[in-house]
From TrEMBL:
Gene, per the UniProt record: MPUL0E05890
Gene3D superfamilies found in the cross-reference section: 2.160.20.70
The species this protein was found in: Metschnikowia aff. pulcherrima
Any single GO BP term: post-chaperonin tubulin folding pathway
Domain Tubulin binding cofactor C-like: 72-161
Descriptive protein name: Tubulin binding cofactor C
One Gene Ontology cellular component: cytoplasm
Length: 224
């Protein structure tokens, strides 16, 4: 029996010794952390902000991949995101944009707030719009639904490849809950029945976006 107790004590001692902490604990705030590589997935919510641009062309390159993007206070500018799914951001939040042309692909949601007079080509999982007016939206939405609120004079279309098409998604308007009457805030339109002159800028934006070269590695974003 004595040998059994001795064996148990020795096992407990070995276990305690095996799992003992060595050195002083390091507070989380001061613990060293590896800096993520450009384009790699960050474990924290660290949005990259693009703000206060006027009459500029902003090309979002590989370092925006798999991150959260925040666009703010942009006027009369062109914003181009990567067309490659591997280089797309996780989410895009844009507010206070006026008279801009925007073409972005996003893995997750795109949220637009307080924007006006935009031409938008968007590819995303979810599209939510609040306080938008006088905009053309060409979208490919994987959950097949767009949510709008506090918005008016919107025209929705779809696109496929390099072609502008009829929208293949539904629109839910928080300010117009009934489907029994025509919604005065937006229209779902087919480009083939609309004057082609209205789409010259959109067609040119789509062409530029699809033909813009994005490197898979390194940083090639720029602002003109």
């Amino acid at each position: 029996m004595a040998k059994l107790f001795l064996a148990i004590e020795r096992a407990e001692y070995d276990t305690k010794k095996r799992f003992a902490f060595e050195g002083l604990p390091i507070p989380p705030a001061t613990a060293p952390r590896e800096k993520p590589l450009p384009g790699s997935l960050s474990t924290e919510y660290e949005p990259l902000k693009i703000s206060s641009r006027f009459e500029k062309t902003v090309v979002m390159g590989a370092q925006y991949a798999k991150l959260h993007i925040y666009l703010e206070n942009l006027g009369k500018s062109t914003i181009l995101g990567c067309t490659d799914a591997e280089l797309a951001p996780w989410s895009v939040h844009a507010q206070d944009l006026n008279a801009c042309k925007v073409a972005i692909r996003c893995d997750g949601p795109i949220i637009l707030h307080n924007v006006s007079d935009l031409i938008l080509i968007l590819e995303c999982h979810q599209l939510r719009i609040h306080s938008m007016q006088n905009c053309q939206i060409f979208a490919k939405v994987s959950n097949d639904r767009v949510i709008i609120e506090g918005s008016k004079n919107l025209a929705f279309f779809g696109y496929s490849g390099t072609e502008l098409t009829l929208a293949s998604f539904a629109v839910d308007d928080f300010d117009w809950p009934t489907s029994e009457a025509e919604n005065p805030h937006y229209k779902l339109l087919d480009p083939q029945y609309v004057d082609n002159d209205d789409f010259e800028e959109t067609s040119e934006l789509l062409r530029i976006w699809k033909n813009t070269a994005f490197e898979e590695a390194g940083v090639n974003s720029h602002v003109d």
